[in-house]
């Protein structure tokens, strides 16, 4: 198969040749042999930041079509992504808007085992959103073919950076030296082994995408390693990556969320809980986004070949979710190793993980692995559904306030019953 001609520029620096736009790929000038071609005659599926080829974006697939040229929002192939963008923008918030000053007093009074629960969850959440703040952009944008999905991914990733900033806001308020907390994240074995299960799918997709853009389909030698680039395999890696991200957004945050809300149920660490509530509201949008991507792909409506790939990946997708659930149970065991907290313990949290895992897997067409069918902590829904509670704005910081959520369309009939 002959791939499209590449628009590849090379820079020489200290004996290295960097190729653009091969995301994440760089190597010595003599390190790449694309099949039986030399670099001079290189052909590839080149990515360009602005394709000058006119096309109908309504006929492009979500992925692997022509790169997006004009970012236009007057029409959408899939309007769900435009709705998600608008909702996410209306949710905009900054952590500094939430007063966490009292949390410092509460934290100092916590017993040691509850301090461990609280600070460990913040470390884990920092890891998750550090990954999510960069990876969707790096992994997905070079493959996307429609503007509404491109902008949704950018909007999604930006909101994840706000979450990361929130954890810094919370941590530097409750401890004297935040560096001690952050430095432990990359050395803590319990956190590291969870990072591997998340990042490997992103990394595999990014690596193969780099080769596909730079070298095109075929068998190539890179740094002495034989690399086979195949579009079908790349589609499979994309599908599994999206499924991994879906599992992350669907279940990996919720043990930590439950602990934060359990503290607040006792009127402790309430500033933290308000921020986590805002984060949970965002994560529900992100989950909806990945669920729609997966369901469009597995239905074959967007790309018929993807329906076959989804079926081929069904068993691995199932295992991926179950493994994520098992890791969350192990995390609950780690959190409560020195003791439980009022209203929450390891067994209850493990049941909750099984409950939400069943719901999330059903939403993307997977079989249910667990017997748990009822929510063991129904009180958490008060925190996760922001419209369940209404409070006067002057009483507390209003976490359900939406910017731009007013319907400005007024008909004269709407005023018929109005009297002065």
UniProtKB/TrEMBL annotation:
Q: What are the protein's UniProt keywords?
A: Deoxyribonucleotide synthesis, Iron, Metal-binding, Oxidoreductase
On the tree of life, the source organism's domain of life is: Bacteria
Q: Which organism was this protein described from?
A: Trabulsiella guamensis ATCC 49490
What does it do?
Answer: Provides the precursors necessary for DNA synthesis. Catalyzes the biosynthesis of deoxyribonucleotides from the corresponding ribonucleotides. R2 contains the tyrosyl radical required for catalysis.
Q: How does it assemble?
A: Tetramer of two alpha (R1) and two beta (R2) subunits. The B1 protein is a dimer of alpha subunits.
Q: What class of enzyme is it?
A: oxidoreductase
Its protein name is: Ribonucleoside-diphosphate reductase 1 subunit beta
Coiled-coil annotated spans: none
> What EC number(s) does its UniProt record assign?
1.17.4.1
Q: Which cofactor does it need?
A: Fe cation
Q: Which GO terms describe its molecular function?
A: metal ion binding; ribonucleoside-diphosphate reductase activity, thioredoxin disulfide as acceptor
What InterPro entries does the database record attribute to this sequence? Ferritin-like_SF (IPR009078), RNR-like (IPR012348), RNR_small (IPR033909), RNR_small_AS (IPR030475), RNR_small_fam (IPR000358)
Q: Name one GO biological process term.
A: deoxyribonucleotide biosynthetic process
Recorded family membership: Belongs to the ribonucleoside diphosphate reductase small chain family.
């Amino acid at each position: 198969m002959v791939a499209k001609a590449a628009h590849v520029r090379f820079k020489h620096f200290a004996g290295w040749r960097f190729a653009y736009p091969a995301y994440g790929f760089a190597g010595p000038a003599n390190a790449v042999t694309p099949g039986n071609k030399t670099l001079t005659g290189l052909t590839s599926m080149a990515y360009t930041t602005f394709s000058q080829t006119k096309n109908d974006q309504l006929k492009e697939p979500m992925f692997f079509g022509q790169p997006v040229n004009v970012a236009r929002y007057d029409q959408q192939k899939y309007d769900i992504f435009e709705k998600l963008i608008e909702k996410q923008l209306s949710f905009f918030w900054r952590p500094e808007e939430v007063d966490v000053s009292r949390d410092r007093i509460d934290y100092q009074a916590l017993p040691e085992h509850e301090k461990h629960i609280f600070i460990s969850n913040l470390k884990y959440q920092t890891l998750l959103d550090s990954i999510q703040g960069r990876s969707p952009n790096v992994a997905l944008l070079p493959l996307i073919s429609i503007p509404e999905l491109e902008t949704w991914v950018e909007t999604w990733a930006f909101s994840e950076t706000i979450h990361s900033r929130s954890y810094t806001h919370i941590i530097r308020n409750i401890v004297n030296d935040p560096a001690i907390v952050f430095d432990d994240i990359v050395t803590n074995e319990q956190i590291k082994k969870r990072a591997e299960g998340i990042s490997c799918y992103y990394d595999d997709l990014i690596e193969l995408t780099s080769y596909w853009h730079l070298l095109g389909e075929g068998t190539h030698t890179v740094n002495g390693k034989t690399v086979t680039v195949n579009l079908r395999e790349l589609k499979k890696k994309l599908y599994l990556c999206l499924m991994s991200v879906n599992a992350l957004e669907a279940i990996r945050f919720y043990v930590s969320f439950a602990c934060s809300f359990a503290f607040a149920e006792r009127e402790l660490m309430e500033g933290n809980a308000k921020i986590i509530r805002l984060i949970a509201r965002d994560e529900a949008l992100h989950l909806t986004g990945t669920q729609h991507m997966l369901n469009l792909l597995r239905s074959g409506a967007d790309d018929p070949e993807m329906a076959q790939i989804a079926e081929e990946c069904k068993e691995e997708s199932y295992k991926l979710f179950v493994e994520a659930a098992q890791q969350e149970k192990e995390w609950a065991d780690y959190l409560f190793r020195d003791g439980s907290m009022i209203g929450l313990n390891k067994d209850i949290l493990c049941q909750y993980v099984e409950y939400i895992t069943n719901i999330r897997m059903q939403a993307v067409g997977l079989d249910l692995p667990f017997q748990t069918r009822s929510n063991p902590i129904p009180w958490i829904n008060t925190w996760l559904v922001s419209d369940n509670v209404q409070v006067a704005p002057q009483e507390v910081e209003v976490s359900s306030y939406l910017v731009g959520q007013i319907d400005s369309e007024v008909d004269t009939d709407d005023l018929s019953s109005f009297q002065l």
